[in-house]
Specification:
Blueprint (H helix, E strand, L loop, with lengths): L4 H24 L7 E4 L6 E16 L2 E16 L7 E3 L2 H14 L1 E6 L5 H11 L3
Parallel strand pairs: 2-5
Antiparallel strand pairs: 1-5, 2-3, 3-4
Length: about 130
């Protein structure tokens, strides 16, 4: 039995809508991923835990407003460490600067997801050496 083209198209569109809805729902859950560490991996004197975040920005260019998203790292915990800012853009320049600060001050840097679980924060603190 073959489906008529209009029924086939409707079926494909319905399946696509269901899949899209499922994907957007899954996107709202905290990611089940391990914290990511960089900087001083051993022999560190301090540690900074960041959470990923996003900030909407807008510009006015010639009467036209443009919105865009900037990915950032936000400090949520600092153990025996102080950084000059609480938020850093995830650009190559800012990440290089953070790495340089980490090496100069013997810091381990740890990143967790935007919507993190208590377990992910606990794993990040364990990476830092804090229980």
């Amino acid at each position: 039995m073959r489906l008529k083209p209009i029924v086939r198209t409707a079926t494909v569109m319905a399946l696509a809508a269901i899949a899209t809805g499922t994907l957007s729902f899954a996107k709202d859950k905290p990611a089940d991923q391990d914290p990511v560490a960089w900087g001083m991996q051993s022999g560190n004197d301090g540690c900074v835990i960041f959470r990923e975040s996003e900030e909407m920005m807008s510009t006015n260019q010639g009467g036209t407003y443009q919105s865009y998203t900037v990915k950032q790292l936000e400090v949520i915990d600092a153990i025996k460490a102080t950084l000059p800012k609480k938020k850093y853009s995830e650009t190559k320049e800012e990440l290089d600067a953070l790495s340089q600060i980490a090496m100069e001050n013997r810091l381990k840097l740890v990143k967790i997801p935007k919507k993190y679980t208590p377990e992910q924060l606990s794993r990040a603190k364990t990476l830092c050496g804090v229980q």
